[in-house]
Design a protein that fits this description.
Layout (H helix, E strand, L loop, with lengths): L4 E2 L4 E9 L3 H6 L1 H13 L3 E6 L5 E7 L2 H8 L3 H4 L3 E9 L3 E2 L3 H4 L2
Antiparallel strand pairs: 1-6, 2-4, 2-5, 3-4
Length: about 110
C-alpha cells in the first residue's frame, strides 16, 4: 500500500471531555455545545470532534499551543455549565497523511 506522508511539525492538542453529570443534563446543553463546535471548526482552531464510546465524554482535536487550546476549551458550554471537565494533551505532529495537509496548513 502506498500512502503519501507529510511531516508537518505543527503544535496540536487532543482535548478529552469527561461528563460529570448524567446524560439528561448533558443533553440539555447539547445544542449550545454543537454550535460551539461548529464555530471552532469555522474559525479553523478545531480539526475534529466526536463522542467517546461508551458515551462518557468527547474527543476534540485542536491546532495550537496548549495554553491557547485550554482557553478555548474552557468556553465549551458543557464546561461552562458544569456538566463536563476537560484535559488538554499537547503534542507535536510527526507524521500525517497527505489528506490531512489542509488541516495542518492553518
Amino acid at each position: 500500500m502506498s500512502v503519501d506522508f507529510i511531516r508537518p511539525g505543527a503544535p496540536m492538542c487532543l482535548v478529552l471531555l469527561t461528563y460529570t453529570a448524567d446524560l439528561e443534563a448533558v443533553d440539555a446543553h447539547l445544542p449550545a455545545h454543537v454550535a460551539w463546535l461548529e464555530e471552532a471548526m469555522r474559525a479553523g482552531v478545531m480539526v475534529l470532534a466526536g463522542r467517546r464510546q461508551p458515551r462518557t465524554g468527547g474527543v476534540l482535536l485542536f491546532h495550537g499551543e496548549p495554553e491557547a487550546v485550554e482557553a478555548v476549551a474552557a468556553t465549551d458550554p458543557f464546561v461552562v455549565e458544569g456538566v463536563a471537565t476537560f484535559e488538554v494533551i499537547a503534542f507535536s505532529t510527526s507524521f500525517a497523511t497527505a489528506a490531512m495537509r489542509e488541516a495542518f496548513a492553518r
